[in-house]
């Protein structure tokens, strides 16, 4: 089964062996915080969408992280905190992007828009800044305006606890990511940039509630809503 980003940009195909992640809506198409070392001037061309209020930038933020340091990201969700140890050495562009976006409060108030509980793909997908409490057709199509390169793909696997980038094809990473809560059969096509160190129980709880109005691929909004109240990134 394959996964690809919706409308070719942020959709995700759920497939065993070949899975491309992005947005997945209930229609069935694949569809306050602090951060260290980043600020509003790190990326050029900042703008906001009048329709969604989401910020966007014309290019990837300048590299401000130190790949030699350890970075921790905490997702402060409505169902509890999820703590992620980020791999800045192997995925510096991904870590730098999350560091920047967290400082911009980019994710605050958005909802995780896609849950998969199949044997070949057990994950929760988040990161569309326009995904709100009420599902809509455009959920899973949106990002920060810029894209960045794939990283850390050689020999990549996706066991439970993996955090990786959703994409619409090679080198199309934006802000959408997925949290793996059960071993998933994916080809090495999604940049793994972190490991969950605390909060797997949150994902198990969300998965236990099932999927509301599953789409044709069996994925969709989690019945138990997950709001990203804020996201923080710290370095040590």
UniProtKB/TrEMBL annotation:
A GO term for molecular function: isomerase activity
Region (Disordered): 27-61
Residue stretches of biased makeup (Low complexity): 27-36, 43-56
Enzyme Commission designation: 5.2.1.8
CDD domains linked: cyclophilin
Keywords: Isomerase, Rotamase, Signal
InterPro entries the UniProt entry points to: Cyclophilin-like_dom_sf, Cyclophilin-type_PPIase_dom, Cyclophilin_A-like
Gene3D superfamilies associated with the record: Cyclophilin-like
All residue ranges annotated as the PPIase cyclophilin-type domain in the record: 76-233
Superkingdom of origin organism: Bacteria
Catalytic activity: [protein]-peptidylproline (omega=180) = [protein]-peptidylproline (omega=0)
Signal peptide, first to last residue: 1-22
Enzyme class, first EC level, given as a word: isomerase
Entry coiled-coil feature ranges: none
Pfam families on file: Pro_isomerase
PANTHER family: PEPTIDYL-PROLYL CIS-TRANS ISOMERASE B-RELATED, PEPTIDYL-PROLYL CIS-TRANS ISOMERASE-RELATED
Functional summary from the UniProt entry: PPIases accelerate the folding of proteins. It catalyzes the cis-trans isomerization of proline imidic peptide bonds in oligopeptides.
Family that this chain belongs to: Belongs to the cyclophilin-type PPIase family.
Protein name per its UniProtKB record: Peptidyl-prolyl cis-trans isomerase
């Amino acid at each position: 089964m394959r996964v690809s980003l919706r409308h070719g940009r942020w959709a995700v195909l759920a497939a065993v062996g070949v899975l491309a992640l992005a947005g997945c809506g209930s229609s069935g198409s694949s569809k306050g915080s602090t951060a260290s070392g980043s600020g509003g001037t790190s990326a050029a061309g900042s703008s906001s969408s009048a329709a969604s209020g989401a910020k966007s930038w014309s290019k990837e933020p300048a590299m401000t992280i130190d790949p030699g340091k350890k970075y921790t990201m905490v997702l402060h969700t409505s169902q509890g905190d999820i703590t992620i140890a980020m791999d800045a050495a192997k995925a510096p562009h991904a870590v730098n992007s999350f560091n920047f976006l967290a400082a911009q409060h980019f994710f605050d108030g958005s909802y995780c828009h896609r849950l998969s509980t199949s044997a070949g793909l057990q994950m929760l997908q988040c990161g569309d800044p326009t995904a709100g409490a009420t599902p809509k057709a455009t959920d899973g199509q949106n990002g920060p305006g810029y894209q960045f390169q794939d990283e850390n793909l050689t020999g990549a696997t996706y066991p439970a606890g993996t955090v990786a980038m959703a994409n619409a094809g090679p080198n199309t990473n934006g802000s959408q990511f997925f949290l793996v809560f059960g071993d998933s059969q994916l080809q090495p096509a999604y940049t793994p940039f972190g490991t969950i160190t605390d909060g797997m129980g949150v994902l198990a709880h969300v998965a236990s509630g099932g999927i509301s109005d599953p789409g044709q691929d069996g994925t969709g909004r989690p019945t138990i809503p997950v709001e990203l109240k804020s996201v923080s990134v710290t370095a040590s």
